[in-house]
User: Which sequence fits this backbone?
């Protein structure tokens, strides 16, 4: 159950980071309002706070988080950018999630 909770926390963390980066993208590349920078800053602060909630070493958390981030970014590509992911997008996301699982479960399995 701990692993599922960690994975869910990573999902929320990735979403906060993507929103925090996507809103400035809208301002810089699509001419949207600079007011988008305020919720972007809040989302990035939430991202940093969510990363701090993990009880394990920061380096391991960041490494495992990267795998989940890739998966969430592919889902964002599909849902928000309206670009259908390719088979290699899905395979790459799957490989990164497998890597995330190995990193997070490894210390527990090695006992």
Assistant:
């Amino acid at each position: 159950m701990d692993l599922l909770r960690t994975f869910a926390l990573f999902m929320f963390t990735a979403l906060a980071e993507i929103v925090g980066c996507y809103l400035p993208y809208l301002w810089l590349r699509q001419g949207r309002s600079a007011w988008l920078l305020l919720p972007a800053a809040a989302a990035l602060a939430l991202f940093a706070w969510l990363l701090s909630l993990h009880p394990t070493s920061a380096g391991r958390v960041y490494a495992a988080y990267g795998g989940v981030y890739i998966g969430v970014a592919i889902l964002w590509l599909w849902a928000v950018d309206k670009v259908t992911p390719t088979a290699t997008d899905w395979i790459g996301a799957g490989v990164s999630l497998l890597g995330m699982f190995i990193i997070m479960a490894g210390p527990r399995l090695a006992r």
